[in-house]
Design a protein that fits this description.
This protein is of the alpha+beta class. The protein is about 45% helix and about 25% strand. The chain is built from 14 helices and 19 strands. The chain has an 8-stranded mixed sheet, with no helix packed on it.
Length: about 550
């Protein structure tokens, strides 16, 4: 019993190590932020922030990062709810305000003082501050910032940057209100306000004019806005013609490709009334890879071993034991399978099911087994590739690929120009073109192979004994191997029924004792016991507003 606590600690450490931190994050949204900044005559600023959070699930509180500008500092930070003071912890520039709850909408009031926040010049006193910047990891659905002078200011001037540009309005007492609306995470929004210099008699005065600099800055911002608006109009004009045309071209290419594939598939259909085993164009594993799935199941591995018996590279001595009689194989993947089963698992001449069970129980062998199976699968895929069963259309693929990349570049431009609908459709259609550049339709010969083996699978479900007897021994072996390899669950009813009906006659001349349930099950167990997986995640953030200041909001 004394081991219980240490074991629990180990389990908890494993949970935190294996699961991403994001999985434990608090689910919330910030529906409203109202910031009131009272600028004082001594150059300090008393800030009151009201943050409304809508939480889903458990939470412990909210966070507020406030990075002061160079030469300033944050003092007297506190948090309240309905007038009740909350506990606050500070870690560098991050403040954690504790308020536990579950599925609630809460409004937290934050109060703090900015010291040395105002610079006085000959013609005015400036407050220039980033209440948030690109370090912010939360969206603000509605944000309002209001700056109040120490006393009514007769000559207030102001501007805003990025999200705050064009959002400011002058109030009757010389205050300035910035109504920004929705502010997305990672955005900047510095505000800059100049009040009457006489309102700050105790502040030391710097040489020079601030209003002239502010006027120049506002003029520059207006010019940039005008240029941006002109570029936006041009971009919208081009995009409104380009995107529909690109979409129409993509639809036309898709229709052409679909119609071409449909015709090739129809022409490749064999005579539905004639039962036959398709001619040997590829090995059975390669045929299964092409006609069924590129994921080669343990049933395919069992069918591949059966193929070696059919080709008389391997002799089956009993249900569980096999003997190698010829290493000269037709395909590289056959040699790889022989190396795995007879050289690694067996004793170079004999291989048995018990050998495989013992081999895969030893964890030291897992890597070797997986490497061999992976090499075998790759060589099967290589055999399929050599038959050129997919059309290349290199010229078409290059063309549509370039169009797709051009649309991605256009999406970047539309995003910069804040043309979000055009950006979205440009990305969407661009993805379609890039996907089409991988267009490799199955050739006519490929459709013939697929159709013939599909017909065989269908016919085998209700095959008459007389039809089966008309097949050659080689045809019976190939048909049987394909059916068993195509079956993902070797113990299902169809396979059992087919095995009972045809296995004896299929292998009469080979002296076989093939048991699909036993052999496929063993390969499945081997694959399961040697499978491993791993994952990892990495993340990083950074940012900064005017004068190195800024910050953002969050929760915990």
């Amino acid at each position: 019993m004394f081991r219980t606590k240490p074991m629990m600690i180990v389990i908890m450490l494993l949970v935190f190590a294996l699961f991403p931190v994001q999985a434990l994050a608090v689910d919330y949204s910030i529906s409203d932020v109202d910031i009131n900044a009272q600028v004082n005559a001594d150059g300090t600023v008393d800030v009151t922030e009201s943050h409304t959070y809508e939480f889903e699930g458990d939470f412990n509180g909210i966070t507020r990062e406030i990075v002061p500008k160079d030469g300033t500092s944050i003092q007297k930070f506190s948090g309240f709810e309905n007038g009740k003071e909350l506990n606050v912890e500070r870690d560098g520039h991050l403040y954690k305000v504790f308020r536990e709850g579950d599925d609630e909408t809460v409004t937290i009031e934050l109060r703090y003082e900015i010291q040395d926040a105002v610079e006085k010049f000959e013609d005015g006193a400036e407050f220039y501050w980033p209440f948030f910047d690109e370090r912010n990891e939360s969206d603000y659905e509605q944000m309002t910032i209001t700056l109040f002078p120490p006393a009514p200011s007769e000559n207030t001037d102001f501007t805003g940057y990025d999200e705050a540009y064009g959002a400011g309005s002058l109030q009757t007492d010389g205050a300035v209100r910035f109504e920004m609306g929705q502010v997305p995470e990672g955005s900047n929004g510095d505000i800059r306000v100049v009040f009457d210099a006489a309102l700050f008699p105790a502040l030391p005065q710097q040489d020079g004019s601030i209003r002239e600099k502010l006027a120049e800055e506002k003029e520059l911002l207006e010019e940039e806005a005008a240029v941006f608006a002109a570029r936006q109009d041009t971009g919208a004009s081009i995009g409104n013609g380009l995107i529909p045309a690109a979409g129409a071209l993509l639809l036309a290419l898709t229709a052409w490709g679909w119609n071409r594939a449909r015709k090739a598939k129809q022409q490749a259909k064999p005579d539905a009334e004639t039962f036959f085993v398709p001619k040997q164009k590829m090995s059975i594993p390669a045929t299964l890879y092409f006609t069924k799935s590129s994921i080669l199941t343990p049933a395919v591995t069992a069918a591949a071993l059966m193929e070696l018996v059919r080709k008389q590279n391997v002799e089956q001595l009993s249900e569980e034991q096999f003997r190698l009689i010829d290493r000269n194989t037709e395909f590289a993947h056959e040699a790889t399978l022989i190396d795995l089963l007879f050289d690694k698992v067996g004793d170079s001449e004999y291989f048995s099911i018990k050998n495989l069970e013992e081999y895969t129980k030893n964890e030291l062998n897992h890597s070797s087994y997986n490497e061999s199976i992976t090499a075998w699968q790759q060589e099967v895929a290589e055999e399929v590739k050599q038959h050129d069963l997919y059309s290349k259309h290199k010229g078409l693929r290059w063309t549509v690929g370039i169009i797709g990349l051009a649309l991605f570049a256009a999406a970047v431009v539309f995003g910069i120009l804040d043309l979000l609908p055009l950006m979205f459709f440009s990305l969407l259609i661009g993805i379609g073109f890039v996907a089409f550049c991988f267009y490799s339709p199955i050739t006519y010969d490929g459709h013939v192979i697929r159709a013939e083996w599909k017909q065989l699978r269908t016919a085998m479900e209700q095959l008459d004994q007389s039809q089966w007897k008309q097949l050659t021994q080689d045809e019976k072996m190939r048909a049987y191997a394909y059916i068993l390899g195509a079956d993902e669950k070797s113990a299902n009813q169809k396979t059992q029924s087919f095995t009972n009906a045809y296995s004896e006659t299929a292998f009469a001349d080979f002296g076989l004792f093939y048991n699909p349930v036993l052999l496929t099950g063993v390969f499945f167990a081997a694959t399961s016991s040697t499978s491993t997986s791993a994952s990892s995640t990495v993340s990083a953030t950074g940012g900064g507003g005017v004068g190195g200041g800024g910050g953002g909001s969050g929760a915990f």
